[in-house]
Every structure is written in C-alpha cells, then in structure tokens.
C-alpha cells in the first residue's frame, strides 16, 4: 500500500524536526542536568533512526542496480533496531529524572526496571546471529520474528511504568508539564500502535519526533521556572523542586542567603539593583554550586540547593559564602558593600515542607541578631514568630486585644490627653507586646482590622463622656502606614468615628516620621482630607527617621512627638543635649506643638519645662494602663 517513497518522506520529515530540536537545545545550552542529557540522547536516537530509515528506503530503490544497496539494507536496519529499542526506556528514564523519582528507587529496583531494556537491546544487537527479531529474505523482504514482539512488549512495559510515575508524581510537576507530557506521550505512542498493526505504514518515527519536540517546548523549555530579572530559578521552581524532594524523600541541604541592603546597588550605580546583584553575587555562587541549583525566591534572596553533601561540608560552604560578603563586591570600578545573613536548613529534615521553607525565606530577620550564619537553635525565633502569627490571627475572635491608655500632660502637670496603646493577652502565649505583634499583623494583613478595633474602642470610650469630664483634649490613636495608603481608608476611618457619634477633633492620629518619608505623596493627600474632616494629627517618633525635614513639616501636622531616645541621649552627653535643644527650637520656630515622650524622671521634666515644650508623656506619670485603671487615675488627679 505504501511504497518506499512514503517511508522516505516520513523519515525525512522526522529527521528535519529532530535536527532542529537538537540544534535548538544545544544553542540554548540546555545540557547540564541529567534530564537534559537523557533528552539529548533521545533526540540523537531519533536522528539516527530517521537516517537509517532514509538509508533503508534509498537502498530499496537501488536494490536491482547496486551491490552496496544490498549490504546497506542490512546495516541500516541493524542500526535502526539497535538504537530504536532504547527509545522507550530512555523516555522512561527521562520522566524519572524530571519527576525526581530516580532518587526514591533502590539499586535493586533500578536494576530490575532496566532488565527489559538490557534484554531487548541484547537481542537487537545480536540479531544478525540469532535472528530472533527479524529476518531478511532472499528478496530483501523484511520479516518480523517473535523478538520484535518482545521489543513491543518491553516498550509497552516502559510505557505503562512511565505513566505510573507521571501520575504518582503529579503534584511535583507543574500543570503545563503534566498536560504536555501526557499529550505528547500519547501522540508518540499512537504512531507506535499504528505501526504495530500496519507494519507498512511507517509513521512511528514521525509521531515520535513530533511528540518529543512537544516535550521540548513544554518541559525542557524552562521559561516559567526562570526569573528573568535575575536569570536564576524563581520561587515557583523552588516550590516544585522542594515538593519533589519531599515526595521522593531526597534530602537536600539549603543555604538561604538574605541580602539586607540591596538598595545600595541602585544608589551607587544608578541602575536596577536586580541585574547587578545577579551578576556579582549570582556569578560568584555559580562557582560554588551548579546554576540549576540556585534559586531567587525574592529579589534580595538566593537559595542554594546542595545535594549529597555532609552537614559539615554545607557549613563550610556557608562559611565561605559568608566571608565573601565581608569584603565589598567589585562591579566595574566600584566596590559595593553588601550585607548578608545566611540560614542553613535541610528538607525533608530539619524542615519538612516547602511552606516552612518559604516561611524562613519571607519572615523578617530579627533586628538583634549578631550571627551571620543561622542554623539549628538560631532559627527558633521563627517558631516564636509563627506562634505570634497564630495568636494575632485568633486575637480578634478570642477577644485577646485590649486597648490601654497612657496619659499625656501639659508641662504644668495638667492632664492633656492620652495615647491608646494596644495589648494582646493570648491564651497560649500570655502577654505579647505591640513591638512584637504589630509588625506581624502588618505582614499577615490583619493590621487593618486591628487598628479599626482600636479606633472603635477609643470612640466608645470618648462617647462615655469621661475623657471630656476630666478636661482631656484628645485621644491619640496610632496608625500603620500600610493602612493609610489603602484606598477607602479615609471613608472607613470617618465611618467608624461617625457611627459612634464622636467629635472628630477628639481623635488625634499618630503617624511615624520614617513612614511619612516613604510614600509621602499619598500620605499627604490622606492627611489633608482627614484634617479637613476635623481629625488631628501628630508626628510620632520624631528624630528617629531620616526623612526630608521640609517635606515632613509641609504635612501640616498639629503636634510633633519627639522620640524618647532624643530625651534620653540629651542626659547622656553634650551632643545629645545639642540635638534635643535644636530639634525643639526648630519645631518651635515653625510653630508646631511639641510633645516629648519617655519622661521618666523629675529632672527630665525640669529640663523640658526649661526648653518650653508643650506636652509630656511617660512612665513618670503613668505606664499605659487598662481603661478602668486609667479612669481611676484621671479621676484621682482631678
Ligand atoms: P509608640 O507609638 O512610640 O508608643 C510609645 C511607646 O513608648 C509605648 O510602647 C509606650 O508604652 C512606651 N512608653 C511610653 N512612655 C514611656 C516611658 O516613659 N519609658 C519607656 N521606657 N517607655 C515608654 P508600647 O505600648 O509597647 O508600644 C510600642 C509601639 O507599638 C508603639 O510605639 C506603636 O508604634 C505601636 N502600637 C501600639 N499600639 C498600637 C496600635 O493600636 N496600632 C498601631 N498601629 N500601632 C500600635
Ligand atoms: Ca505612638
Ligand atoms: Ca512614639
């Protein structure tokens, strides 16, 4: 039905496809992983197969005229069978490699799984002697023998095993890879099936060529795994690869490198910092581990996956990397100092899931760490952090938050107002202070609800009329910058106050100086609108940030709260005193009210009286206390 022209055409098409495929793979340098190597073997087999089929077809044409063609027909068929027999097992190994399953197999299992391959390959290679696969008759006709069916059977076994692995590793393959593998796998298989039942319809080589080219596009092409800014594997790739390690119980040591001052790069070079960090740090890291074992889950974080190395070796590597950060990095004629903290862990080992790994990668580093390499017990702060996260999450439901009040006074000792300060009494952790839980609440997105809760409590307190009764002007409520920046913030805040029927002048929002600098324009707009609505504003922690002073003051806030550290430093030395005095003088010159916090002693009060500040707040008068205690306190003072 089909002549040799048909076979020739099909083989030529397959050859072209495979050559393009191979050249593309080599141009893209996708050659270093085991998976890539097997892939190249597969494509090479298909190329050899196509060439041998072309050769066979050509020889058939010339049988009558050429002696060489008669030999050629034997040789080309021999080469075809010797190589084609390896195709299915190779695809099986390929899928094992992509899914990471090979690390789960014991040696014995691997040997057993390779048995079919070894036997059929042996038959193919010895066929000229044994003739168990095929024979060629006197007219150069081709006849299948039982050996060929054995090859089909072996192929079927590998085919089924490949499917089993594909499905058992379903989770560790990305969606795109799963579908592509199944589709192209079925396509390749369909050609084999057709040719099994219709030996003249030599279509198998073409469906295989197309099938594997599809695999190239979907699996070998790793665009979805690569972070283009950095040129290394991205977060998604790290997630899937760690899943694979957990699934296959393959221990991998991880060195997490967190650079804390990446912004210095753009400050020094005027260019995007990502590309440069990738060049200098990434470049160095590739001298330590293979490029495909480096991930960049965040722009300032590298993760190195280290396989098959002892804990000591990994520690040594980390030490070496950490020391490299002790000296500045050369970039052109610049020397860029970068600071990094390293974390060591392993999976599945000290941590057991990708989620835990990402927790380590994303949680802020504690401010007070003195080590450059964290491992073992150094990482216990993460456990505490996780506990605080859970506590914050259940806090609103379990009613564990309570608003405390700390009074503020005029310098002459008359009550002026109060600052609302939040406390958390957790059922498991006990009392947790806001310096610990507020940043956590911000990170997990619960700060809005918490700050709304505080504002609502304050409004309810104001509504009782008690604060007014004792001559208070206002109650201060702390705002998180994240909250202020959100669309609809002004409406929400006004809504809470209005629904409580409280005079807006009584609410004085505190925002911190460093925040005002960061997103100054949006913030300034929000403040303007809220002030127009009647709210008051204070600048908190003044003197701790590094903001543009004129920008900060153009925000037109009512009160500037000088941070306690300025007061405390003024008592320590001359320089501190100069800073405090001049800060106060400058704020007075632009006619803003001044509140100094952290007042703990009578001598501090004397100093601040002398410097003519307006209001005082601090432990000298009272710590933040629960509302009922606060009411008692102010009623006694009255
Ligand atoms: P902050 O706004 O600077 O609050 C002042 C902090 O100084 C309070 O700590 C207060 O207890 C403490 N303090 C006041 N006077 C003295 C003193 O004389 N000596 C000493 N040593 N400390 C004094 P607290 O209550 O632990 O709050 C810490 C931070 O947590 C606050 O700093 C504020 O930024 C944040 N925070 C507290 N409550 C809330 C809240 O409801 N919402 C938001 N967004 N942040 C809050
Ligand atoms: Ca405050
Ligand atoms: Ca403060």
Helix content: 55-70%
Provide the CATH topology of the largest domain: TIM Barrel
Kindly name the structural category: alpha/beta
How would you characterize the largest beta sheet? 8 strands, mixed, barrel
**Low-confidence runs:** none
CATH architecture of the largest domain: Alpha-Beta Barrel
- What is the H level of CATH, i.e. the homologous superfamily of the largest domain? EAL domain
Radius of gyration: 36 Å
Bound molecules: ligand C2E, calcium ion
Termini separation: 111 Å
Q: Helical segment tally?
A: 26
Compute the number of strand runs.
21
Strand content: 15-25%
Give the count of structural domains. Answer: 3
Give the spatial strand order of the biggest sheet: 12-13-15-16-17-18-19-20
CATH class of the largest domain: Alpha Beta
Mean pLDDT: 91
Shape: elongated
Could you please describe the fold and organization of this structure?
The protein has 638 residues and is of the alpha/beta class. The chain folds into 3 domains: 4-221, Up-down Bundle (Rhopdopsin 7-helix transmembrane proteins); 224-374, 2-Layer Sandwich (Alpha-Beta Plaits), CATH 3.30.70; 390-636, EAL domain (TIM Barrel, Alpha-Beta Barrel), CATH 3.20.20.450. 57% of the residues lie in helices and 16% in strands. The strands form 5 sheets. The protein has an 8-stranded mixed beta barrel, surrounded by 6 helices. Strands 6-7-5-10-11 form a 5-stranded mixed β-sheet, sandwiched between helices. The protein has a two-stranded antiparallel sheet with strand order 1-2. Helix 2 (34-62) packs antiparallel against helix 3 (67-84) and helix 23 crosses helix 24. It is elongated, with a radius of gyration of 36 Å. The protein starts with a helix and ends with a helix. Bound molecules: ligand C2E and calcium ion (2 copies). Residues 406, 421-422, 433-435, 438, 451, 454, 478-480, 510, 540-541, 564, 597-600, 617-619, 624 line the site of ligand C2E.
């Amino acid at each position: 039905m089909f002549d040799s022209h048909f076979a020739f055409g099909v083989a030529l098409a397959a050859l072209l496809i495979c050559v393009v495929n191979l050249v593309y793979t080599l141009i893209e340098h996708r050659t270093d992983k085991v998976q890539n190597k097997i892939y190249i073997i597969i494509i090479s087999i298909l190329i050899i197969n196509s060439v041998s089929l072309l050769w066979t077809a050509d020889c058939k044409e010339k049988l009558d005229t050429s002696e060489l063609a008669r030999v050629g027909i034997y040789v080309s068929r021999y080469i075809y069978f010797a190589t084609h027999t390896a195709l299915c097992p190779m695809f099986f190994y390929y899928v094992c490699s992509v899914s990471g399953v090979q690390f789960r197999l014991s040696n014995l299992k691997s040997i057993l799984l390779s048995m079919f391959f070894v036997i059929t390959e042996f038959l193919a290679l010895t066929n000229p002697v044994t003739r168990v696969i095929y024979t060629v008759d006197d007219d150069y006709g081709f006849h299948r023998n039982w050996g060929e069916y054995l090859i089909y059977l072996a192929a079927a076994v590998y085919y089924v095993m490949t499917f089993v692995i594909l499905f058992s590793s379903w989770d560790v393959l990305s969606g795109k890879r799963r579908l592509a593998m199944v589709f192209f796998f079925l396509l390749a298989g369909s050609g084999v099936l057709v040719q099994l039942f219709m030996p003249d319809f030599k279509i198998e080589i073409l469906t295989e060529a197309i099938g594997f080219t599809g695999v190239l596009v979907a699996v070998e092409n790793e665009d979805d795994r690569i972070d283009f800014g950095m040129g290394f594997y991205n977060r998604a790739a790290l997630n899937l690869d760690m899943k694979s390690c957990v699934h296959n119980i393959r221990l991998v040591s991880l060195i997490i490198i967190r650079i804390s001052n990446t912004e210095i790069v753009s400050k020094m070079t005027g260019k995007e910092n990502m590309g440069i960090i990738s060049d200098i740090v990434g470049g160095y890291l590739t001298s330590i581990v293979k490029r495909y074992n480096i991930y960049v889950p965040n722009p300032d974080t590298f993760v190195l996956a280290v396989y098959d190395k002892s804990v000591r070796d990994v520690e040594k590597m980390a030490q070496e990397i950490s020391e490299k950060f002790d000296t500045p990095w050369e970039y052109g004629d610049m020397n860029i100092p970068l600071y990094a903290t390293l974390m060591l862990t392993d999976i599945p080992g000290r941590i057991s899931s990708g989620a835990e790994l990402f927790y380590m990668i994303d949680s802020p580093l504690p401010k007070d760490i003195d080590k450059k390499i964290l491992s073992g017990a150094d990482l216990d702060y993460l456990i505490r952090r996780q506990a605080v996260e859970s506590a914050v999450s259940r806090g609103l439901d379990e009613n564990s938050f309570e608003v405390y009040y700390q009074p503020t006074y005029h310098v002459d000792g008359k009550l002026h107002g109060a600052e609302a300060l939040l406390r958390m009494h957790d059922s498991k952790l006990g009392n947790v202070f806001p310096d610990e839980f507020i940043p956590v609440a911000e990170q997990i997105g619960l700060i809005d609800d918490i700050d709304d809760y505080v504002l609502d409590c304050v409004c309810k307190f104001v509504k009782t009329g008690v604060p007014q009764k004792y001559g208070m002007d206002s109650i201060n409520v702390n705002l998180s910058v994240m909250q202020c920046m959100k669309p609809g913030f002004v409406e929400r805040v006004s809504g809470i106050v209005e629904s409580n029927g409280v005079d807006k002048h009584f609410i004085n929002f505190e925002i911190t100086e460093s925040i005002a600098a960061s997103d100054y324009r949006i913030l300034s707009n929000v403040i303007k609108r809220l002030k127009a609505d009647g709210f008051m504003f204070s600048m908190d922690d003044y003197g701790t940030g590094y903001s543009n002073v004129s920008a900060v003051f153009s925000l037109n806030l009512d009160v500037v709260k000088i941070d306690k550290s300025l007061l405390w430093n003024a008592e320590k030395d001359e320089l501190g005193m100069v800073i405090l005095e001049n800060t106060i003088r400058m704020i007075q010159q632009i006619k803003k009210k001044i509140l100094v916090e952290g007042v703990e002693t009578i001598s501090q009060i004397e100093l601040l009286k002398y410097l003519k500040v307006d209001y005082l707040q601090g432990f000298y008068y009272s710590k933040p206390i629960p509302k009922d205690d606060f009411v008692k306190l102010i009623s006694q003072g009255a």
